[in-house]
Amino acid sequence: MAENTKRVLVLGAYGFIGAEVVRALRAAGMHVTGLGRSSAQAARVLPGVSFVQGDLLQLLRPEDWAPLLQDVDAVVNCAGVLQDMAPGELEAVHHTAIAALGAACAARGIAVAQISAAGAGPDAGTEFMRSKGRGDAALRASGAPLRVLKPGLVIGQNAYGGTGLLRMLAAVPLVQPVALPDAPVHCIGMADLAAAVAAALRGDLPHGTYDLVEDQPQMLAEVLAETRAWLGFAPARRLLRLPGWLLPPVAGCADALGRLGWRSPLRSTAMAEIRSGVRGDPDPYLAAMGQGVVPLNAIYQSLPSGRAQRLDARMALLMPVAVAVLSLFWLASGLIGLWQLDTAAKVLMDTRWGGLPAKASVLFWSFADIALGLAILWRPWAARACLGMAGVSLIYLGAATAVTPQMWADPLGPLVKVLPGLLLALITHQLLQER
Asked: Is the whole model's pTM more than 0.90, yes or no?
């Protein structure tokens, strides 16, 4: 079969790595179909690309993969999760489903390119890396034609996970905060990673396992300095070294937020990986291909950067603050309404409302405020909660204008102050849009 007619199924197709792999394979003339959980998100990220809906948590037996592998010549696995969002998720996504995929591909002679991670293996320090290693081992044992690609820290035009964290930290004005500044980090550019996948599917890269990393690791502080310079921010006036004892409580808070659906790059697994360093051996890939991957400074030189990237980094830094402010504002608004029930009801009673309807209205809207303040903390509801906040703000403004128009002239400006909160809710709604 000619290489430009190869039919490829890409798992995790609309993710940070998967989307770029899909684009690179299509540019190489291959027929690509993506697989993931959300067809709507796939259509938004990869318009015009064939897509099938599937969840690795439900593809745990070889026979589950059979319908998805019809007319497929190769599979690229770009799917992964940093740590459990539900019990057993890591094991299912990184090992059980991938072992089943390997068995199904081996039975059909389908080649597999597995995107693993530098350092993955049975003796790794985190369950993320150990589960990745078990998936790699299961694929090797399956007998399917296999290339295991183990990238270091992936640097691309877009930002997600570790790359997003780098840009957030680089956006801090005046100082450069960093914990573990001397931690070694091997990087790889997204273009080199996508090229390695394409080479694997063409057969230019022999079967085997390859770390995809630059020749020499950088120190984390150096990576941040390079990122800051690429974004176009002024050099930091000083390096703010955060104490090591701060990491466990920060990671604990991030893990707690993870249970609310927030996939923070500060979770304990990410912190443990930074502490142990992101390292690999570049020599096997160099020997197989005759050239290695480009170093960090060349990666950034190849990526365009401008106002959009700086704005994205600043907004990513501000987004958690915006969510926290909105939550506290709406919770406080509702709780104060309950605490000052009689005083709030009197405002309505002064406009000839009866006592019972006035108090019922205050109670209703106080509980609505509290519900919205809590809803924004649950990640799956957060964007809709922002729209709810905007809608309720408009109701408040409209009702107050009709019933108590004199409040617009109140020297404390209670209605005027609704407008910034409304605008913040709408801006935060946009910041919460993924990928």
From this structure: no
